[in-house]
Amino acid sequence: MGCGNALGHQIPPYFIFAGKRMRQELLEGATPGADGSVSETGWSNSEIFQSYLENHFIKYVTGMQDKHILLLYDGHRTHITPDIIDWAVEKKIILYVLPPHTSHVLQPMDVGCFGPFARIYSSEGHTFQRTHSAVINKYNLCSIACKSYNSALPPSNLQSAFRKSGIYPLDRDAIDQSLFSISDAIHRQSQSDENIKVDDIPAIENETTEPVNLMSDSEINADTEPILSNQENENIQIYVAEKLLTKTR
């Protein structure tokens, strides 16, 4: 998992390894602040994501407690639970799940950071294999990935990513609308296939005017669980906002 903000500050990477027990040697060669966990599949899940937020993410945004933090991230089902929402409201973190199939233009990490990361990691991996005459495994991966992560998420890339996605500075004309054509086609197909009943949630009458700090979080490997539908996404955003308003009133 990777995260950075609109000012150009990165949060150290967080690794998820396949296994049943976390071993410190899995983080051999990690850069300062990097951490990780394990799951049986090697993929994220609700428990790991909540632990990431509560024990990793929060350590690097605690200096911003006087302001709300807007956290933008992908809409996988493992990323949304009542416990996560309640915790976020308590910590003045506004969770904003990006619309389905739009991360290629709206997720700053995808727009300007993970492409360079993939290229740098590939190059570093080939260099490691040549110089060490060894394959990359889970015990030497961390040092290579951390080095690549730091190179791919400098302030200039993070700032550019938020700017290109039109998020900060806010620019509704920053994105070529034709980039959404593929997303629209995917969405229409998913709408025709799904049969999900979503409970109605009352509309919001007020909105908060407190300043926010823009963050963007994403996973380098996409979660295997399905993403939220547009209707589910919209209802979740309303629910999060109402919880936040109830807390701040």
From TrEMBL:
<dbReference type="GO" id="GO:0003677">
    <property type="term" value="F:DNA binding"/>
</dbReference>
<dbReference type="InterPro" id="IPR004875">
    <property type="entry name" value="DDE_SF_endonuclease_dom"/>
</dbReference>
<feature type="domain" description="DDE-1">
    <location>
        <begin position="1"/>
        <end position="162"/>
    </location>
</feature>
<protein>
    <recommendedName>
        <fullName>DDE-1 domain-containing protein</fullName>
    </recommendedName>
</protein>
<dbReference type="Pfam" id="PF03184">
    <property type="entry name" value="DDE_1"/>
</dbReference>
<dbReference type="InterPro" id="IPR050863">
    <property type="entry name" value="CenT-Element_Derived"/>
</dbReference>
<dbReference type="GO" id="GO:0005634">
    <property type="term" value="C:nucleus"/>
</dbReference>
